[in-house]
């Protein structure tokens, strides 16, 4: 079996139910989700298996759910009964955020992305997730999409912020506060 098909040589790609241009907003949205998934895989690969066993497990599940998000955005015609992303995924992320935030020091000011290598990469995940969300919003202005994908991506970027801080906290590396930040968070 070869992985090349030559069917995209003229700038079109297959989606569920048809073909579209490779720069179609649908392809931009699920392509950015795919990019995010790659960074999540990288985060799993550098997270210490003992210190971050729970996070590695959660991130692996997120990788599967990101595939589900991409699949839900790839339909040419709406097939709600075939959607894979439901409201329970965003709700579960909220409970995970609360759990990880319980490990983090109080936050009063904006912080810079950084600290450990893992924390830095999780901040990259957060920003790519925000871009995936923006691309999905753009798509939603043109086509009817599964609205749960937008909710999931919105909550997922919050998750990445929380776990980036946890990645620092568990190894006792302080977040770096933005020096010109006033107190912007209330505890």
From TrEMBL:
Catalytic activity: 2 cob(II)alamin + reduced [electron-transfer flavoprotein] + 2 ATP = 2 adenosylcob(III)alamin + 2 triphosphate + oxidized [electron-transfer flavoprotein] + 3 H(+); 2 cob(II)yrinate a,c diamide + reduced [electron-transfer flavoprotein] + 2 ATP = 2 adenosylcob(III)yrinate a,c-diamide + 2 triphosphate + oxidized [electron-transfer flavoprotein] + 3 H(+)
NCBIfam families membership: PduO_Nterm
Domain Cobalamin adenosyltransferase-like, first and last residues per copy: 3-167
Pathway terms, separated by semicolons: Cofactor biosynthesis; adenosylcobalamin biosynthesis; adenosylcobalamin from cob(II)yrinate a,c-diamide: step 2/7
Record keywords, A-Z: ATP-binding, Cobalamin biosynthesis, Nucleotide-binding, Transferase
SUPFAM superfamilies named in the record: Cobalamin adenosyltransferase-like (SSF89028)
Protein name: Corrinoid adenosyltransferase
InterPro entries recorded: CblAdoTrfase-like, CblAdoTrfase-like_sf, PduO-typ
Domain of life per record: Bacteria
Enzyme Commission designation: 2.5.1.17
Family: Belongs to the Cob(I)alamin adenosyltransferase family.
């Amino acid at each position: 079996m070869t992985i090349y098909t030559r069917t995209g040589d003229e700038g079109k790609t297959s989606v569920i139910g048809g073909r579209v241009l490779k720069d179609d907003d649908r392809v931009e949205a699920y392509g950015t989700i795919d990019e995010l998934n790659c960074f999540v895989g990288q985060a799993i690969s550098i997270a210490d298996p003992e210190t971050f066993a729970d996070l590695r497990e959660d991130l692996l599940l997120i990788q599967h759910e990101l595939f589900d998000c991409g699949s839900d955005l790839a339909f040419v015609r709406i097939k709600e009964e075939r959607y894979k992303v439901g409201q329970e995924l965003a709700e579960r992320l909220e409970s995970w955020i609360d759990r990880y935030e319980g490990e983090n020091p109080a936050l009063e000011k904006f912080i810079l992305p950084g600290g450990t290598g893992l924390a830095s990469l999780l901040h990259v995940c957060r920003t790519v997730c925000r871009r995936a969300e923006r691309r999905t919003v753009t798509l939603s202005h043109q086509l009817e999409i599964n609205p749960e994908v937008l909710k999931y991506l919105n909550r997922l970027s919050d998750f990445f912020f929380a776990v980036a801080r946890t990645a620092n906290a568990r190894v006792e590396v302080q977040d770096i506060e933005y020096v010109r930040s006033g107190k912007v968070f209330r505890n």
